[in-house]
Amino acid sequence: MDRKQCCVKLSVQPARGLVDEKFTVLVQNAPPGSQLTVHALHQCEDGYTWEAFAHYIANATGTVNVSEDLSLGGTYSGVEPMGLLWSLRPVPGSKPGLRMRKMNVQTPLEIRISVYQGHSTEAFITQVPLTSVFVERWYMAPGVRRVPITEGGLTATLFLPSGPGPFPGLLDLWGGGGKLVEYRAALLASHGFASLALDYLTRKITLETGKMVDNQYFETAYRVLQQHPQVLSSRIAMLGLSFGTCIALKMAAYSQVVKLRCVVCISGSHVQPVDGSVKEILEYFQRNAEKTRINEENQVIWRDLLLPIPTDPALKVDVGRLQCPVMLVVAEDDQNWPAPESAQDMKEMMEQAGNSHLLTILSYPNAGHLIEPPYTPHFRASSFKTVGQGQMVMALWGGDTVPHARAQEDAWRKMLAFLQENLYGSTKPAATSLSHL
Amino acid sequence: MSQTIPPILSVLPTRALVDEKFKVLVENLPAGSPVTLHSLHHSEDKDYWEAYAHYISDHKGTVSVAEDLSFGGTYAGIEPMGLLWSMRPVPGSRTGLRLRKMDVRSPMLVNISVYSGHKAEGFREQPPLASVLTERWYMAPGVRRIDIKEKGVRGTLFIPPGPGPFPGLMDMWGGGGGLLEYRSALLASHGYVSLALEYFSPGELQSADLEFKYFEAAFNIVKDHPQVIPDRVGLFGLSLGAVVTMCLAAESTITKPRCCVCVSGSHIFPRGETLSGIHKLMFRNSHKARVDENNYHIWRDLNLPITSDLSMKVDVRRINCPMLLVNGHDDQNTPAVESAEDVAQMMHTAGNDHLLTRLHYPDTGHLIEPPYSPHFRATNFIMESTKAKDEMHQKHVILLKWNFSKET
Asked: Given an 8 Å threshold on Cβ–Cβ distance, is A114 in contact with B59?
């Protein structure tokens, strides 16, 4: 047994962190100048194995600091403090088209971080690491409460932040894949927003009868949030991704009931039949289905279904009517929705209407459609089934891993700041101290 | 609409090891507003512990506990971790309490809150402006906990995550007895296989029949463990555990520790007898015990002055591994500093004092524990139980001067 090897120390701080918190990975006591591979391993809820790894060289004191040192290669290179997480990909030989999503947010993601001797690129499972630690990544901060909501016929989950409240509220909508996806709402609650994750496409009744929800469903969700004793009724926002953007914009522009403090739209569009609800939007897509493209890898590209951006006002939300701040998060390599073109059109509409001062567009080069909370993996395509479709296809989302990871990190930070300013802010410090006089 | 905008309170990280620092930040307050930061913990014994401090927000409406001054409360000045180490039982609590986590598999839950104004009481009567829950863990993720009941040895073994092998430690507490796991759990979280050893039950010291054999067997359990590097096993002891550590290091022919850490111990020990001998020694000198004006028992004089009779002291001249002595100048329980001085002299005469490192802290008491945990001037301490199970335990209260002291 080589004594020197077995005393290599590895520490990750914090060992238990929120999904959007940074960590530092420090290797110490390695032979100076030695070649080391730092490796991350995760088994997701579906049972698939994901890994990331990077090659380093220990310095003169036998240390590798992932936050400061250069990775010489692996699933990421360069100085990347969080590369071990965002560059995770399914281990070689895995089923194609996998996507990592945590459905049970009450337990953490568990990642094993290890150090291996030498610069390995494969077969980590056959080697014994020099040292390993376990790291937990949580969507829920301690004290965040998870409350299933069924009143008003809703299929939803409310996440309440720790503390007495009251808190600003947020309606959180995912896209065309449906299901009740909780993790983003859980994370937002960990940042002080009472967040309602809403399933609007795959409720039991829809799956059984095919009947889609109407606009009242979203107004009911808004009311439930508004009337909750721990929610500040005048400080509610909506956040939508992909199809969720359609709903968010429709509600923000036209609903008499839904009064939003601000709106965040990720990877979406304003193009939809103005009249009607979910059913009509899906039918619009169906009518344009022949514009679907399939590339040489048999991946499905849906961005053209909404192109060209129509000039007919009946076919796009009149964003000139919006009266609250809007943030559009756009990926320039979005192969699933024409988000960049839509953002451009929305900007022009708002400039003409005179409310473009409300608009912020964050546009990320080489990022793909699924802009999710940071430090989570990127996949250029994955198996996907839209509601209303028969079979699973390989949907092309787009984007390259490194720019996509940067987009996720940057967008999340800016989204949180935007939500914080609009939902918690408006008490200007200067104004308050004057009021003491 | 009279719903006011709450401030934003954050604690980073929300889940941490007990010896890790955190940052407490309040934002979105009105500028220049007085607030009270408050911590609350409901212990396993069902007592409430709290700390609080008075702050004033800056022009941006922010209070940063790591950087700002506390103007009063249970701590003052810039104290990033003051909300933890200055916790004390809430007014009206039982007396003589000590905060110790017995179940290390779950975290200590501490509620951090911010209240309007500078308050010193009534925290339960009005709701705070904001509150977050933070977890303080003794066990890092992946640390394994294994009950040990073999070869007559009783304890709990904590093993770090990973393939190992790891250096090892045998961890011994003091005269209160029982099985305390938290320090070993924390040491394992730092990469040591650590055995928390139970060597007598609370109140049973006098009847405990402890010989070197027990400790040697326990040490071997660590040394022989497949995930332990056999020649890298150390000893860690506090109080009576420190006495045991020095005895083993000096006298045992079987136990060869790689190094020793002795916290608040002494080397006064009648050589050759079993450990229960130490108890007899104390009763021999019990006329030297003092009781102060609060009826607290002070035992430091029982072994003073330090005897020159070599047969009454551990022969530290025979210790041949590095040893660290950690003591408080205000230890009222054990004459730890005087003992350390004598140890240094003895080792000097033998020419092995290069192995000795002494850390002495001013205004520090006997119970030098892992950092950021509260301190107690005096606590209840079970001396000896009476024979019948349903008779009350006789309790003595020991004076320990308080301070915020950290383990190095």
From this structure: no
Give dist(CA B174, CA B197) in Å, integer: 11
pLDDT tens, residue by residue, A377-427: 999 999 998 877 778 999 999 999 999 999 999 999 999 999 999 999 864
Q: How many angstroms separate the CA atoms of A172 and A151, rounded?
A: 17
Residues of A in contact with B6 (CB under 8 A): 163, 165-167, 424
State how far the Cα of B212 lies from the Cα of B253, in Å rounded to an integer. Answer: 10
Determine which helix (DSSP H) or strand (DSSP E) holds A20, and give its type and residue range.
none
Is the CA virtual torsion A389, A393, A395, A401 positive or negative?
positive
* A408 in reach of chain B (CB within 8 A): no
**Chain A nearest C-alpha distance from B5 (Å):** 6
Quote the CA–CA distance of B225 and B62 in Å, as a whole number: 52
For the annotated catalytic residues of A, the residue numbers are: 242, 334, 369
**Phi and psi torsions of A158, nearest 5°:** -100, 130
Q: What is the 3-state secondary structure (H, E, C) of B158-209?
A: EECCCCCCEEEEEEECCCCCCCCCHHHHHHHCCCCEEEEEECCCCCCCCCCC
Condensed to tens digits (0 to 9), the pLDDT of residues A5-49 reads 457 999 999 999 999 999 999 999 999 999 999 999 999 999 999
Mutate which of B14, B124, B231 to test chain A, going by most A C-beta atoms within 10 A? B14
d(CA A272, CA A285): 9
Side chain identity at residue B137, one-letter code: W
Q: Starting from the edge strand earliest in sequence, which strands make up the sheet with B356-361, in order?
A: B144-150, B153-159, B193-198, B166-172, B228-238, B260-263, B323-328, B356-361
Return the structure tokens found at A371.
């802009």
Q: Please give the share of chain A, as a percent, with pLDDT higher than 90.
A: 91
What is the rounded average pLDDT of the residues A355-366?
97
* pLDDT single digits (tens) B84-138: 999 999 999 988 788 899 999 999 999 999 999 999 999 999 999 999 999 999 9
In angstroms, what is the C-alpha Rg of chain A?
23
> Quick one: what percent of chain A has pLDDT higher than 70?
96
**How far apart are the C-alpha atoms of A63 and A68, rounded to whole Å?**
11
pLDDT tens-place string over residues B74-83: 999 999 999 9
Token pair, residue B348, equals 């000097």
Kindly tell me the number of DSSP H helices and DSSP E strands found in chain A. 10, 21
Distance CA A365, CA B398 (A): 68
Rounded Cα distance, B407 and A170, in Å: 45
- Under 8 Å CB-to-CB from B57, ≥6 apart: which residues? B26, B29, B30, B31, B32, B33, B35, B63
Tell me which residue of B383, B242, B406 sits closest to B299, measured CA to CA.
Answer: B383
User: Which residue numbers in chain B have pLDDT < 70?
Assistant: 1-3, 205-209, 272-285, 377-378, 380-408
Percentage helix, strand, coil for chain B under 3-state DSSP, each rounded to 5: 20, 30, 50
Asked if the C-beta of A428 comes within 8 angstroms of chain B's C-beta atoms, the answer is no
What tokens does B317 get? 């001249």
Q: Which of A1, A9, A142 sits opposite B14 (nearest CB)?
A: A142
The structure tokens listed for A304 are 């053209």
Nearest to B133 among A21, A128, A162 (CB): A162
Amino acid at A222: Y
DSSP bridge pairs for B131: B113
Peptide bond just before B335 cis, omega within 30 deg:
no
Give the whole-angstrom CA distance, residue A327 versus residue A263. 6
The answer to whether residues B342 and B266 touch, using CB atoms and an 8 Å cutoff, is: no
Measured CA distances, A16 to A105, A109, B359 (Å) = 14, 10, 32
Closest C-alpha to A330, from A345, A319, A341: A341
Nearest Cα residue to A280 out of A210, A212, A201? A212
Query: Hey, what are A377's tokens?
Result: 């993996």
